[in-house]
Amino acid sequence: MTETVGAGAEASKTSKKRSGGGGGTRKGLRVQRVFTTEGVHPYDEVTWEKRDVVMTNWRDGTVNFEQRGVEFPESWSINATNIVTSKYFRGAAGSPERESSLKQLIDRVVKTYVASGTEHGYFASPADAEIFEHELTWMLLHQVFSFNSPVWFNVGTASKQQVSACFILSVDDTMESILDWYKEEGRIFKGGSGAGLNLSRIRSSRELLSSGGTASGPVSFMRGADASAGTIKSGGATRRAAKMVVLDVDHPDIEEFIETKAKEEHKIRVLRDGGFDMDLGGSDIASVQYQNANNSVRVSDEFMRAVESDDKFGLRARTTGDVIDQTEAKPLFRKMAQAAWECADPGMQYDDTINDWHTCPESGRITASNPCSEYMHLDNSSCNLASLNLLKFLSDDGSFDAPLFAKAVELVITAMDISICFADFPTEAIGDTTRKFRQLGIGYANLGALLMATGHAYDSDGGRALAASITSLMTAVSYRRSAEMAGVVGPYEGYARNAEGHQRVMRKHAAANELVRTLHRNDANVRALATDEWKRGIEIGERSGWRNAQASVLAPTGTIGFMMDCDTTGIEPDFSLVKFKKLVGGGSMQIVNNAVPRALRALGYQEEQVEAIVDYIAQHGHVIDAPGLRSEHYEVFDCAVGERSIAPMGHVRMMAAVQPFISGAISKTVNMPESATVDEVAEIYFEGWKLGLKALAIYRDNCKVGQPLSTGKQEKGEAEPEKVVEYRPVRKRLPKKRPSQTVSFTVAGAEGYLTAGSYPDDGLGEIFVKLGKQGSTLAGVMDAFSMSISVGLQYGIPLEFYVQKFQNLRFEPAGMTDDPDVRMATSVLDYLFRRLALDYLPYDKRAQLGIFTADERSAQVEADYSGGDSEGDGVDLETLRSTVDSGGTQVAEQSADETATSGDEAHTTTELVELQLGKAADAPLCMTCGTKMRPAGSCYACEGCGATSGCS
């Protein structure tokens, strides 16, 4: 927790050289301990272990990364370890300079931040700086938050200290500006980041050049930029170039822009049907244009009202601003929906809504966004991001710890602002704008998991109220801290000119907070604290100004979500109820997400019910007909895909609930089923405008040829790659009423009873053995032994395995029995498992184990005596089989077969869901490791190696 010392008019006159603000005497921030303990370093509070990171391409088994003996906390997953080691550790592989411990990585980043904060006057004393260092270290160590990927790539290294992942460029109506656009974009792509821009200043193809010729129009220049992006990507980048291209709805070339990618999709289908390789990464896909960018139309309120009233809308010349054509608004809007239905582009950006929440209107309009649409501010600017792991603030009693969350936000937003003091930028124009306006993008991940864990359906009033309250609190604390920092090191340079506009937006946020209707104790407590924070922040800001023009966004959190071991990314719901967990020794196992049992407990289910429901989900992948689960609770477990997937409008409603509390926007694509219609797409886009969203994109399943649906296809004759997959056993419980039989027995004079319970049609499921007097050691040991065997049977261990292990086991009592089928036994266990084999195993399996009934042995002797099966005198195999009851099929065999079948081609959570639920998740292959990716916001993320298709 931090507080200001000497905040106010005098303190706000900090040196411009030191802070980027006004001029005067520095006082600094006091920092209090929140997570750490005085005298104990955060590293000393965790247990560390050495691990080997060996990452292979599952397709051919080749090793694409290896580093052994890396040091990580015991609590970190193998997946997080692999991703951090392979992507964020710096130094040449195999060299002594290569980082080998998470301590080195965190120290490299945190110490750079603290040194810069000290240099630029953020801390009141060296002791405050040390506490700040320990607090940041503790939160990173315990996966409470993470900076965006460029921070981990660059900070504290010999590279340029680039900390931003999001960039907005600008282009004017001159050839020099267009060529600069190509160059600047290429430089950003080369560094692994993405950029967006608006092409609406470029004159249309219906306007004349100064020379008298006809202009090419923006769409033609998009072709060159697309080729450039594709070339740079193929020249060594590990992911597709991430870029956003925006065009205003009143541009005369808007129809051509809308149809650009849809027409290319038609071309792809024709070429595919003609035998060309048009899969993503295929040899012929390079002939298709415009595939390296996301396209969005910037629509105005005027246009949307024209759509609503079915009026005409004017298209304006770029050079004069005059209306040069009138078009029917409704058919044009439907063309957008039709194109999006066909190929997912264009998305929608709502211009008037965006600029109504603009803190710096005197410095220019917001015309574009970054590639994932969460960062929206001035042209030639950038934003560095950080995201908090919301599940870390969920208390054991199911309450969200709002005060602790507020303290964490304080610390993180302070660190983010410090980074601008030492950051480098790809162009001077971007650096200049960012230093003057200091845009930040704090956000969160694991919202979907948090809602489920607290018993809220994602698409519910309660879920939206909690999400809105948390988002409001996050942004309120961020701006309050920003105002306090302005009192210490000065407001952002552009604040004086935009003071009125900035204050107006702060009041809009506070007013929206008052409109949140809370339904439970959790969201009521969070919103109450948010109300106080907005009030405090506005009061301080009106005196001191604000340090940052923008504070918050909701990013996709692809790679850093894996780094924090999050179940869900950004604002997304849970993707599926089951996922794969990597194991230390290699391979993986299928597990049910941790939020599921927490949700069941929050809903009031007892532990035995929780265990039964979790076992059912592990086996089936969904909750429908789960034992004991009430149908009214099904919605809590609805996911992005599966038998009960969240309706598209449910995603839109959640975005609308949190949008009033975000400085920027939300990275999210609304997934729609393949059966969705053009009218449904149009409805989504129209409701997005009505509900006050800033941007919206949709994706209809299977609408693109260039993105494969699965990775299991192989050419004839191609060897199936060896898979190392370890499956989690599934417990199949017996029904409350089940058939059983009791056998009394005697072994060498020792009497006992064996009771065996079975599934109605699937064989043995439990045993109870009574041997010795009640309360004796022998009786207790046999009870424990019986329970152990029963649980093993229910988890799918084959009965023949137990028989093989325990038959012929020798210890006293041993000798004659009173069972005609088992005349001699070498021990009680030898007798018990021979008896169970006779009662529950089919003849074939017993024959392999050498266990037969008395009748079967007699038949064999008779067959041998008669010389075999000749002339009908002998006994053939089928006759022997008919002499016994086979006892039903083995549960474990069926369970194992089903598991093997369901997981035969599954290598990621996405593929597991496809195979189990029959629902395809349209996603590309990872360009790094070949694994199928999964959605993360409006991008895709690889849970195999952490690579993303956009910003991280």
UniProtKB/TrEMBL annotation:
Q: Which segments constitute the Ribonucleotide reductase large subunit C-terminal domain?
A: 164-699
Q: Does the keyword Oxidoreductase apply?
A: yes
Could you list this entry's UniProt keywords, alphabetically sorted.
Answer: Cobalamin, Cobalt, Disulfide bond, DNA synthesis, Nucleotide-binding, Oxidoreductase
Instruction: Note the Gene3D superfamilies from the entry.
Output: 3.20.70.20
Q: Where are the compositionally biased (Polar residues) regions?
A: 885-902
Q: Where is the Ribonucleotide reductase class II vitamin B12-dependent N-terminal domain?
A: 53-143
Q: Which residues form a coiled coil?
A: none
In this chain the TSCPD domain maps to 735-839
Catalytic reactions of this protein: a 2'-deoxyribonucleoside 5'-diphosphate + [thioredoxin]-disulfide + H2O = a ribonucleoside 5'-diphosphate + [thioredoxin]-dithiol
- The answer to whether UniProt assigns keyword Plastid to this entry is no
Top-level enzyme category = oxidoreductase
Region listing for Disordered, in residue ranges: 1-29, 885-907
Q: Name one GO molecular function term.
A: cobalamin binding
EC numbers listed for it are 1.17.4.1
Q: Would you identify the family this protein belongs to, as annotated?
A: Belongs to the ribonucleoside diphosphate reductase class-2 family.
Q: What is this protein for, i.e. what is its function? A: Catalyzes the reduction of ribonucleotides to deoxyribonucleotides. May function to provide a pool of deoxyribonucleotide precursors for DNA repair during oxygen limitation and/or for immediate growth after restoration of oxygen.
- Tell me which PANTHER family the record gives: RIBONUCLEOSIDE-DIPHOSPHATE REDUCTASE (PTHR43371:SF1), VITAMIN B12-DEPENDENT RIBONUCLEOTIDE REDUCTASE (PTHR43371)
User: Which NCBIfam families does the UniProt record give?
Assistant: NrdJ_Z (TIGR02504), PRK06556.1 (NF005122)
Name of this chain's protein: Vitamin B12-dependent ribonucleotide reductase
Instruction: Please tell me the species this chain comes from.
Output: Prauserella sediminis
